[in-house]
Amino acid sequence: MALYAELHRHLGGSVVPRVLWRYFQRHSTELISRFTEYSEFEDFYTRPRNTLDEYLELHTLVESVQTVETLPYFIYRLLRGAYIFENLAYLELRYTPYLRTPEHLSQAERIDKMTEIVNIVGKSSHLPEYPIITSQILCMHSRLPYEVNKAIVDLAAQNKDYVCAIDVAGGDSYYAERLEEWISLYNYAQNLGVKTTGHLYETTAGCYPELLPYLMRIGHGIQIPLLYPELLKDVAKRGQCLEVCPTTYLKTGTLQDIRQLKLVFDRCFEAGVDIAICTDNAGLHNVRLPFEYENLLTYDIINFAQLKACQDAAFRHAFAWPYTQRPASLLNGLLKPEPDQVLAMQDYSR
Ligand SMILES: [Zn+2]
Fold this sequence. Notes:
- The protein has a single domain (4-335), classed as TIM Barrel.
- The chain starts with a strand and ends with a helix.
- It has helices at 17-27, 38-46, 52-63, 71-86, 107-124, 146-158, 179-191, 223-227, 232-237, 246-251, 261-271, 282-285, 289-298, 304-317, 327-335, 339-349; strands at 4-10, 88-95, 133-141, 163-169, 195-196, 199-200, 217-220, 241-244, 274-277.
- It has a 5-stranded parallel beta sheet, sandwiched between helices.
- The radius of gyration is 21 Å and the shape is globular.
- Helix 6 links the parallel strand 3 and strand 4 (163-169).
- Helix 6 (146-158) runs parallel beside helix 7.
- It has 350 residues and is an alpha/beta fold.
- Zinc ion (ZN) is lined by residues 8, 10, 199, 219, 280.
């Protein structure tokens, strides 16, 4: 049985259109009044955008309805879908906790409220009927001030039961103005023993070699093999893994054709750089993890052996997977019957 690890999924983008539509129908019909039927809404929600900025705008729609009260509702549906349709054994869910707090509060009050959000997400993610090992990655955000981002790092350090790492998100072209700040925040996180990833080298405007040494994994990173392959040697030496999310680049206008990813995979394999295949925003894209795998095979971007290598890499680079092996090797002993059981089964068939 193949069970998968998902390392890069945003809480905001994880709501599939049907679940969001149902939620609006039940609770805020005014937000969908301009759509006459579901298919129109689905089309609006999932259609490609021209730029990463336009694409990220959509997240605010979902963020506005993901509050203390509604998070358990959305997370329950997220885990149910991930367990039943995606065969996930492991899921790292990422989001900016500050953006789930009420906007009318002061900055200090919103910072205080973030702990509650982390607890709610943590408790809601533990569902005995859908037993996926989950952990949270807290995203610093390029539009938020230094104090808030520092508080996000502190929160990660103080809640290691629920949180496995920090990230930076919100559009990689905006880091340039505050590069020193990001370096100091990552430094701070490392000193507190917090693991690190970051949205970097996703678009051509988001290439900052200065930040690379601070990351254990690289969120996207596709511009490294595409534009700066000379950096791959150091990426391999540092043991960094690229979190590649194939559908995203078509939805954000970063790539025109999914086949452009062949160069990304080829150069990484050649340089010994690990890749974990991820969904980023499975809901927003309406593309679940097994379909990301299948697409890459269909377009001959990777073969089955390379797919397996990427799936192994995902478990190896998972920040909170508690075992040394993939679940398949753990399950093998359970599922492979002993020789005398096989004989007994053959008796039945007579
Ligand atoms: Zn992302």
